[in-house]
């Protein structure tokens, strides 16, 4: 006998059918002397808790076909639920009760089969199972509460298990996080009945946690405290808060702060940027600070801060480069000059403070002879010559006396070297250092004596003939000592010792050469009608002739003659030539130059 669980609806329309079958051996073995089998008269009884029902109208199976199926109801009351047994009876004491049994379940509502876990975003299937054991009472099923579910599909089919039939309705959908708590129901109705059976369930949708908000400042001042907050929505117990406290922030605390929430279904995060504001840090230099004149200079000055600083490079009160709201400033010099050397100040500032850095740029250059280089008489036939030069590195100074074939340098008894001084000695006010050498000439001055100032270092050399500065008068009456041209001698002729030098210099060095005199026709200099020179600032200019009174002697056709005649230059009066005390000229291209004295002692 095969048994199973059978179900039926409670109430007047409800009924249930219990499947049952039985069998017997086809050739039974009997004890000796017994040969008759009374199988045709077998009686089947169904018992309920020891009370046997026997034959009654509820037996729907044919015992002759070995079918002992039983139908209970309608109506079907809850007290009929329980276990049912089967007993075979051949009469008298020939009875047998089977230990196998079936169980009747009287249902008040459909059976809802819900997955153990509903996860947001994953397809879920709910089942509504109802018995279908009454041939004339086929149930009708309907789902409720599915109107707003996404991706909904419904299906229905009949299942048989151990002879007990049931109808299963399926509902497939993809739950969302917001579907948590939504109620879904299954309703069952029977034909010719107003009764309806309902079952419902509230959806428990599980989902990955969600970070709702990350709170906190986006900017904080260095040294202050900062508090962050993170609000997380999760399944249990709902919204949770996670705090983060920074007691004293520094620039290293700047960055992205992320709140992460995760469970077995996934993870979610939100971020917040924190910028720590601070005053500029001490500037940092990058580049070459020591160059040779003419080299390119490229250096940067950078300072870290937040917000970005204003960075300036200044030399004294003059700003030479600036960068606004940039981390660094650049100084570019295509060709460094000596005046570019010196002290610079890099300053970075923002609204939270400032910092600065002083540094020096050193430009090495060849010697430059300074204006104070000159000679001056001391009286009694002695003179004092000064040779001053600026250079980096410091130059070596010497005096050259070509007429004596003599060079006087450090170590000579008449040579004195002063200690170098910084700052104003350099050209253009640069950082070059000036060195001054002094030579004392003793024992009388020869008229043809020439003194040269020479300076040299590793980058070049410079040389210059020194001029003699006479505050009151000049040596022998009627003689000119000149400037840069040697001694011109007495008016009216060229002395054979006359030396004329051509000099040229720039920032890299100097050159000097003594000029030779060219006399057309080999005529002696000074004879009337002959050319007296071809360079500017000579007595004769552009082929003019020097000679007797009335002849052309000067410049652009002006006439020189007897005392009192006009000797002019470009329309300016040179005055009167002759009697002592008269003015000999004040304009340029004059015989007298930069305070030098021409003529008789004491006369201008």
Beta-strand fraction estimate: 35-45%
Rg on CA atoms, Å: 64 Å
**Taking all residues together, what is the mean pLDDT?**
75
Largest sheet: 9 strands, mixed
Low-confidence stretches: 29-57, 472-493, 521-604
Oligomeric grouping of the chains: single chain
What would the principal axes of the Cα set say about the shape?
A: rod-shaped
How many beta-strand segments? Answer: 40
> What fraction, in percent, of the residue positions are helical?
under 10%
- Summing up helix and strand content along with how strands pair, one would put the structural category as mainly beta
How far apart the termini lie comes to 160 Å
Q: Output the number of helix runs.
A: 0
Layout: helices, strands, pairs:
Blueprint: E1 5-9, E2 16-18, E3 43-48, E4 51-52, E5 70-72, E6 82-89, E7 95-107, E8 111-113, E9 118-119, E10 124-131, E11 140-144, E12 153-161, E13 164-173, E14 183-189, E15 196-202, E16 205-206, E17 210-215, E18 219-221, E19 226-233, E20 239-246, E21 255-263, E22 266-277, E23 284-287, E24 290-292, E25 297-302, E26 310-315, E27 318-323, E28 328-333, E29 342-350, E30 353-369, E31 374-379, E32 382-392, E33 396-401, E34 406-409, E35 415-417, E36 433-441, E37 452-457, E38 460-465, E39 500-506, E40 509-515
GO molecular function: carbohydrate binding; sialic acid binding
Keywords: Cell adhesion, Disulfide bond, Immunoglobulin domain, Lectin, Membrane, Transmembrane, Transmembrane helix
InterPro entries: CD80_C2-set, Ig-like_dom, Ig-like_dom_sf, Ig-like_fold, Ig_sub, Ig_sub2, Immunoglobulin_dom, SIGLEC
């Amino acid at each position: 006998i095969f048994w199973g669980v059978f179900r039926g609806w409670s109430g007047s329309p409800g009924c249930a059918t219990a499947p049952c079958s039985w069998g017997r051996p086809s050739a039974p073995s009997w004890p000796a002397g017994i040969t008759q089998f009374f199988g045709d008269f077998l009686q089947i009884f169904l018992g309920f808790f020891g009370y046997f029902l026997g034959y009654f109208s509820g037996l729907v199976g044919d015992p002759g076909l070995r079918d002992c199926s039983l139908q209970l109801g309608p109506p079907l009351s809850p007290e009929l639920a329980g276990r049912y047994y089967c007993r075979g009876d051949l009469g008298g004491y020939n009875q047998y009760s089977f230990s196998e049994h079936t169980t009747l379940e009287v249902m008040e509502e459909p059976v809802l089969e819900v997955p153990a876990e509903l996860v947001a975003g994953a397809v879920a299937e709910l089942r509504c199972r109802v018995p279908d054991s009454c041939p004339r009472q086929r149930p009708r099923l309907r789902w409720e509460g599915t109107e707003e579910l996404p991706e909904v599909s419904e299906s229905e089919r009949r299942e048989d298990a151990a002879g007990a039939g049931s109808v299963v309705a399926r509902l497939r959908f993809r739950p969302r996080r917001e579907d948590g708590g939504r109620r879904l129901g299954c309703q069952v109705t029977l034909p010719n009945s107003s009764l309806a059976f309902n079952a419902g369930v509230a959806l428990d949708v599980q989902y990955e946690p969600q970070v709702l908000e990350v709170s906190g400042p986006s900017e904080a001042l260095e040294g202050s405290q900062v508090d962050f907050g993170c609000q997380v929505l999760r399944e249990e117990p709902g919204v949770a808060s996670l705090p983060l406290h920074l007691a004293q922030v520094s620039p290293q605390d700047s960055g992205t702060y992320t709140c992460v929430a995760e469970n077995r279904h996934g993870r979610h995060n939100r971020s917040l940027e924190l910028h720590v504001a601070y005053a500029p840090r001490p500037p940092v230099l990058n580049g070459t600070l020591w160059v040779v004149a003419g080299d390119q200079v490229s250096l940067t000055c950078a300072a870290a801060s937040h917000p970005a600083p204003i960075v300036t490079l200044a030399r004294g009160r003059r700003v030479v480069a600036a960068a606004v709201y940039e981390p660094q400033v650049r100084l570019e010099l295509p060709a460094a000059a000596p005046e570019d050397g010196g002290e610079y100040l890099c300053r970075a500032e923002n609204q939270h403070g400032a910092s600065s850095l002083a540094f020096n740029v050193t430009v090495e250059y060849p010697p430059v002879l300074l204006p104070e280089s000159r000679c001056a008489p001391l009286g009694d036939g002695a003179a004092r010559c000064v040779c001053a030069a600026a250079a980096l590195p410091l130059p070596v100074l010497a005096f050259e006396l070509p007429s004596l074939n003599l060079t006087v340098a450090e170590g000579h008894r008449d040579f004195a070297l002063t200690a170098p001084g910084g700052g104003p000695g350099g050209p253009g006010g640069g950082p070059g250092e000036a060195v001054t050498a002094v030579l004392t000439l003793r024992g009388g001055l020869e008229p043809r004596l020439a003194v040269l100032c020479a300076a040299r270092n590793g980058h070049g050399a410079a040389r210059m003939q020194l001029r003699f500065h006479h505050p009151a008068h000049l040596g022998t009456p009627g003689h000119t000592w000149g400037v840069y041209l040697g001694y011109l001698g007495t008016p009216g002729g060229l002395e054979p010792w006359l030396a004329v030098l051509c000099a040229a210099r720039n920032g890299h060095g100097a050159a000097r050469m003594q000029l030779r005199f060219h006399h057309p026709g080999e005529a002696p200099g000074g004879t009337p009608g002959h050319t007296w020179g071809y360079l500017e600032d000579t007595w004769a200019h552009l082929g003019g002739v020097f000679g007797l009174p009335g002849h052309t002697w000067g410049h652009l056709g002006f006439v020189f003659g007897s005392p009192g005649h006009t000797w002019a230059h470009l329309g300016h009066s040179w005055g009167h030539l002759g009697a002592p005390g008269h003015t000999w000229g004040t304009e340029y291209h004059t015989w007298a130059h930069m305070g030098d004295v021409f003529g008789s002692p004491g006369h201008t």
